[in-house]
Amino acid sequence: MLTLPNRRIRIAAAITLAAAIAILIALVFWAILAAATEGSVGSRVDIPHLLRMTSIQAGLTTILSLLVGAALAWAMNRLRFPGRDLVVGLFASAIVTPGMVVAFGLLSIWGRNGWINRASEALFGFPLGNPAFGLSGILLAHVVLDGAFAARIMLARLDAIPSARLKTGQSLGLSPWQRFTLLDWPALRGTVPGLAAIIFLLAFTSFPIVLMLGGGPANQTLEVAIYAAVLQDFDLVGAVYLAATQITVCSLVILAASALAPIPTSFGASVAPRWRDAGLARALQIVVLGLGLIGFVLPLLSVLLDGFSSGMDRIIARPEFWWAAASSLLIGSASALLTLALALTLALGRGATGSGPLRTLLGMPAFAYLAVPAVVLSLGFFLLVRQVGLAPSAAAPFVVVIANSLLALPFAMATLGPPLEAIARTRGKLIRSLGLSGWRQFISVEYPLLGRDVGVMLALAFCFSLGDLGVIALFGTQDFQTLPLMMFRALGSYRGNDAAAIAAILLLGTIVAFLALPKLFERLAHAAR
To answer: Crossing angle for the helix pair 47-78 and 279-308, nearest 10 degrees?
Structure first.
């Protein structure tokens, strides 16, 4: 395109980075395949059962999350009430809420000694069972997170329906069902396939939720089985077969999803409702929103209540807690900054070229984590470190930072890529006419318009790293652990009070980072204008 400024350095840097990431992933594959060919003893892992179980829970999660998300988006799009922006923001935060925190919250409500069972025993003399474990618990935790995430994405599509079309519908006196079929569903239809693919991949590669709520081998998934094969059985051959199976399935889903419409991130404020229903439809919307809020907020509230009422002072008095907290903050900050550098380099290079094949090539690194999820990636790094003769404990901090950065890269590219490309399209001719250098272009034009997006991206990357268990699980030691690993070990040692306190701290840290970073960088960008 003639309007694009000539930015050969940006394009060269993006190509170099894409090649480096491709080489890194190739080395991980090589390490996995090398371990598989070296293994002379057969493995006992039941891949068909694990693949079937993983696919069933991911498929059910996808269907239920889309139904819950559509119902919540429909209700929020119609209802106006005090604190609506806060509710929308809560659902947007689902993407960064640590899965193990939600799992812990569900255990405190629905577990054997949870609120529901204690209340039932006090009122009726018998407990209601333990629905927080097994497939039901896995589905419940996934739907709490993925349903809220789907609701925010779908609400953005409903908010984008043109006002003229709504006015026409109102003038025709459309009923709530007619409006949904004629106006809402056409707006949602293009988003559903891509959103379904993302939710399926998130559920298929879920690790902490299945690890904590699976309840035994019957509900084990590929990701958890890899972890168990490496750490519990040291069955590297089985772990490699499992990793290859997972990579194959994820790659097939990604290839199918690549032809679908992209799903933009939606973290801003929602527009005020422009169409409000009455009667039974309005009552149903209130019920749906109320149940959705209870389902999402109650586990988080229980985490905070249990954490601050069960010996918070004891956990913060332990030196190992502060070492773990410092490790989490340092790793989260380093991962976020590295993710920003990777995403900016790739997105700036994509925005500077008009070549379709090159744009596709520069977008491929964003799919690295989706094709090679956290536990598989960390297994590959673990094997690679062993191949080159390094001690895993020495390489652990660097591996965790790199792996967490690749984990956040798809969301970072989805956040920064579209606005940078829009700037190149709409302001490219002006930039060329002013003769701005690449650096001046970034400082004077792009960064001031990207302030909030940069903050959102950093918040996403930091929160992903802060709550991650999949990467640190294979590399953690007694001398090197993060807060999620410390919490998991506390649960394994039946120190529930310690785990509750750590979960509360993780949740508060996630909320503060998710709310504060976008606002901070938005103000910094405004100051730079």
So the answer is: 120
- Cβ atoms of 96 and 461 closer than 8 Å: no
How far is it, in rounded angstroms, from Cα 149 to Cα 94? 6
From CA 526, how far away is CA 302, in angstroms rounded? 38
CA dist., res. 146 & res. 158, Å (int) = 18
Do 315 and 300 fall into the same domain? no
Single-letter residue type at 337: L
Q: Position 163: which residue type?
A: S
Mean pLDDT value of segment 169-179? 82
Identify the residue whose tokens are 């054997």: 112
Q: Give the CA distances from residue 70 to residues 89, 248, 421, 456, in Å, rounded to whole numbers and listed in that order.
A: 17, 30, 30, 24
**Domain count for the chain:** 2
**If you search the block for the tokens 């690749």, which residue do you land on?**
406
Predicted confidence (pLDDT) per residue in 17-37, tens digit: 888 888 888 888 788 777 767
The lowest-confidence range among 129-133, 193-197, 437-441 is 437-441
In angstroms, the CA 5 to CA 428 distance is 6
- Tokens standing for residue 204: 């298929």
Nearest to 159 by CA among 292, 277, 274: 274
Please, are residues 484 and 102 in contact by the beta-carbon 8 Å criterion?
Answer: no
My answer on whether 35 and 48 are in the same domain is: no
Structural domain boundaries, residue 34? 1-41+310-529
Element (H, E) at 171: helix 163-171
